[in-house]
Amino acid sequence: MAPSRRLFLKAGLAGGALLTVGGVGLALQPGVLGPVPALLQVLDATTWSVTAAVARRMCPATGPAADAIDVASRVDAQLAKMHPGDAAEVVQGLILLENGLAGVILGGGPRAFTASSPAAQDARLRAWQTSSLAVLRKAYKAIRGLVVTAYFSHPETYAFTGYPGPPDFGQSRAPAIQLAQLPEPAAEPPPVEEVPG
């Protein structure tokens, strides 16, 4: 489910300092950008690539691949429907997750998240999930919620989970509206003939 309230507000001085670290530079080493779609609504090339990397770590390995169903773009679409302030804070969280300097301070090594090994990515995500800093735990929860929702709401995952799909309430069997079913237009009254006086 998409977060419905401000996620990182009132995180305290520690949270504010961490977000500042994220703004200093993306990493001690550059990240790895994927083939980014042309039309993104909220994410940019970097945050889309971070989201795609997170999805590869969080989505099941036995179901449809996260890249195959473009989870990152589905997250972008979810963010576009959120309050702009909430969406901006999720983006800040993604930037901080990518940051290699933040990785040194918070655990996970000096490489950008997208340039890290799968094991190092897992370690960084676990560090955020179990962090003593509320701002990191909230960021992890928000990012995970968006990624998991984007993955499991895709129709290609239904068979994998045993979910038959959303009910159609009989809509698939409802007859299409035909012209014959529409009411006939009201007939115009015949013109009144003038009687010569």
Structure summarized in a few sentences:
The protein has 197 residues and is an all-alpha fold. It has helices spanning 12-24, 45-58, 71-81, 84-98, 100-106, 118-129, 134-152, 158-161.
Provide a descriptive summary of the structure in words:
By secondary structure, the protein is mostly helical. It has a domain at 13-26 and 40-154. Helices cover 48% and strands 0% of the residues. Helix 1 (12-24) crosses helix 4 (84-98), helix 2 packs across helix 4 (84-98) and helix 2 (45-58) crosses helix 7. The model is unreliable at 1-5 and 7-14 (pLDDT under 50).
What are the SSEs and their pairings?
Layout: H1 12-24, H2 45-58, H3 71-81, H4 84-98, H5 100-106, H6 118-129, H7 134-152, H8 158-161
Helix pairs in contact: 1-4, 2-3, 2-4, 2-7, 3-7, 4-7
Terminal Cα separation, in Å?
Answer: 80 Å
Shape assignment = elongated
Series of secondary-structure elements, N-terminal to C-terminal: HHHHHHHH
Helix and strand composition category? mainly alpha
Largest sheet: none
Provide mean pLDDT, rounded.
80
- Uncertain spans, ≥5 residues at pLDDT below 50? 1-5, 7-14
Number of helices: 8
Q: In what range is the share of β-strand residues?
A: under 5%
Radius of gyration: 26 Å
The total strand number stands at: 0
Helix content: 40-55%
